[in-house]
Specification:
mainly alpha; 2 domains; 9 helices; globular
């Protein structure tokens, strides 16, 4: 289909598949699996992507009172010298960094406790465990199995975000479209990447993130 489009033809279903008429440079390279070259990115795929951009939003929509209640709960968390205290909640934070994401992850289950259904808690816990294990600087068969278990737990309970949706506004069409989130799909390949190329922390983009202008 791609070769037909590049040659000027208009194959059926080309646009619907989200393709562009660009011939990949690696198409005819022998023994090339380009997808194995796409490395895990803990900052953008996990901390920012699956946690902050998706799971926090889904969980918040299961809390009666929504973002106001979540802000109140963050502000009520006891202070700790090694954890950022979100004294005004999180809805007024506009400049997020990896540090903020990780500090929010440390207390998020405690913030949600008692405000959402147990299955929502289980889904969030599965994701947080996955993020925790994915950051290991060394791995064993046991730790990779724990990573897989966390991944399965999230998938078993992820539909709780839809079942216990509790926001004031009606649920938007195509809400929590799990099959359409590339970052969620990418998590399924973390174990393979770690086995082939080493621990995911070596490919994390958080280090050079401060060099953004």
């Amino acid at each position: 289909m791609l070769k037909e489009a590049v040659s000027g033809q208009k194959p059926a279903g080309f646009n619907d598949a989200g393709l562009r008429p660009i011939l990949p440079f690696w198409l005819d390279l022998p023994h090339c699996d380009i997808f194995s070259c796409i490395m895990p990115d803990i900052l953008h795929q996990l901390h920012k992507g699956m946690f902050k951009d998706h799971t926090v939003k889904w969980a918040m929509n299961c809390v009666a009172g929504g973002d106001d209640e979540l802000d109140r709960r963050f502000a009520a968390m006891p202070m700790h010298s090694e954890i950022r205290h979100f004294k005004k909640g999180i809805s007024l934070v506009f400049q997020w960094t990896g540090t903020e994401y990780k500090n929010m992850e440390k207390v998020f289950l405690g913030v949600l406790a008692g405000s959402v259904h147990e299955d929502v808690m289980r889904a969030v816990r599965g994701l947080l465990y996955f993020i925790h294990y994915a950051q290991f600087e060394t791995h064993t068969t046991t730790s990779l199995e724990a990573l897989k278990v966390a991944w399965r737990q999230f998938h078993i309970y992820k539909y709780a975000f839809i079942t216990y949706y509790n926001a004031k506004q009606a649920m938007p069409a195509n809400y929590a479209n799990f099959s359409g989130i590339p970052k969620l799909h990418r998590m399924d390949h973390y174990i393979q990447s770690i086995r082939l190329l080493g621990t995911a922390d070596r490919y994390n983009t958080e280090g050079p993130e401060r060099l953004h202008i």
